[in-house]
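Input sequence (183 aa), recorded before submission:
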Amino acid sequence: MLGACTATREQEIEGDVNEFRSWVNTQTNKLEERTEEDWKRTKEDFKRRTEELDRKQESFSEKLKADYQQIKADFKARERERDKLAVDQAQLTKWERDLLGQYANGTSLSADNVEEAYKNFMSNVRARHKTWDQQDWNMAASVLDELNQRKEAFDELPDETEVRIKALQMEFVALKESETANE
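Predicted structure, token format:
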């Protein structure tokens, strides 16, 4: 009878750890889509769940203890990744404001002013690029990528506008290549 109870208890504990693994995998999937508030709740839930499992840890087999520690380490690694994403997004937002000015807000961009947004971007790049390092160039390229994606929302731009925008895009690439080649 005691053996059956022990086996059942071990299965229950293993089920708890497997459920925790599944929860961690679900919570850390698509981190870039998580809001700050949602992620904060997830971290609080993680803390509560680990406190609960930590109390049961003395009943874990060595293999289960190792699995559990790995699951916690995986979550912490993903948490660091999420924190870095948040910092990167905040940095990108700052760079967009600096390089795009009034066009940083996606709702202010239209088919009528998209060329102006590119001109504004390149004007700011020309004025600032001499002091940039590789990280700065990467951020500026991210701003340009974002602007390019937003431009795609406009179905038909006049050919002349497309040509002038393409020239500005090429100027950015040429500047970046010439500056980063000198590093």
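Checked by second reader. The helical segments are 2-27, 36-56, 62-100, 114-128, 134-151, 159-181.
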